[in-house]
Amino acid sequence: MLDLWFTGFLSLLEPQVLLFLMLGMIIGLFVGVLPGLGGTTALALLTPVTFGLEPITALALAGGVMGGTPMGGAVTAILLNTPGQTANAVTCLDGYPLAQQGKAGLAIGAAASANALGGILGTVSVLVILPIATQIVLLFGPPEFFLIALLGLALVATTSRGKMLRALVTGALGLMIASIGYNAVTGTERFTMGVEYLWDGIHLAPALVGLFAIAEMINLSIKGGTIAKVDENMKIEGLGDGLLETFRQWPTVLRGSLIGTLVGATPGVGVTVASFLSYSMTVQASKDPESFGKGNIKGVIATEAAINAKDGAALIPTLAFGLPGGAEMAVFLGLLVLHGMQPGPLMLINNQVEIYGLIWALTASCIVASFIGLLLARPLAKLTYVDTQLLAPLIIVISLVGSYAIDLTIENVVLSMVFGLIGYLMIRFDYPRITLVIALVLGEIAERNYHQSMLISDDSWSVFLTRTTSLVLVIGIVSSFLYPVLSSMVRKRIRARKAAMEVRS
Q1: Which end of the chain is more exposed for a tag (fewer CB within 10 A), N or C?
Q2: How far apart are CA 359 and CA 314, in angstroms?
Q3: How many domains, the chain?
Q4: Range of the domain at 66
């Protein structure tokens, strides 16, 4: 096994392979910064270009794109509350408040180191898990996928402490919107109003462009001023502190990397679920959960570590069974087939050098992209001091162009504008947007796998309790409801005891 790891690493040291790895990483960073595009679009555009390349070179290019995109998305999420890809939407929750406080350097430094560490830990996990990937993937079926979706929905309220009712309202709205489109199980159309564009449901990427980028720029235009408070002696500080803070928060990094690895190894769940679950678990484990959403650096670290760990782990079901771990991996499957590599158990035997080379390429691009992100942090952070009357029109135009480029359809632009107005109203009346996003992501997954579970069990609910994996997930769902209540009761008792002791003294 160690020989294969070493051989895969050596395959990247060829000059041409290194060149394409760096090219892919730069493209990934650039695409990650542009709202709505993400690694999926970049891979789709680059796949035909790789036709004449050697397989290992093509995989290095793809690995560079996938490894570089998260860092680019984190930068815009922190500075402008505009996630470059869907997973970075969770980074906005604490990254943007830090930028508003003039701590953009701290947030970007933490995001960069968390990206690199998450990628490294994810790689180690993949190298350990890959030989037993078959047994792991078989632990999950439609009942488990449904329960994973339920777990994510159950954790929605934990990111909106003090706004539980509003979080539930926006979550319910997201589930209703997720029901629009063609039902793959029953074969019926729902709420499409005769619009062919809606047959596939609400397209997530343009919806997120509107919900975050457009909505935030509308809000900033109305408020005026700058994102961060302007100081006469303006300095972008805290970059080194952000790097060190990640190393101080090892439990957060390890938790996020583990969650990202587990979610990534589950086919079809997606990176947004990984980042949200990591964030929610971090909130629940914190002694000061009320600080999240207001600029807690742990929120940035947990999210970014999970995103990069997930990207490596998503290779497990993709390579072992041809089951993509998300939209990005679905496009990546096409690249593999184009170069004569058929995903499945035989690929783990016949293309081991290429597989391990790809894993190392992902890791290298994570580290290098994080380093470049640090070099660009100070000039990029100065965007938070630009007058929003100048910044907002530029970001809106870039966002709408990015939305159009996803499918080259004008309907994407219209959808982004509609969700931009919805997002602005949610900002105006203080309703959490992230719960709407999670419901949009998980709604379709939950519905499809619920129907499939009922079909294979003849409408018996026992299907959700017959396997160990299902039972573990059910316990997790119950715990997610009980933990906040119990922890709140414990904190109240501690405060009461302290108050009693003070009275006695």
Answers
A1: C
A2: 11
A3: 1
A4: 2-504
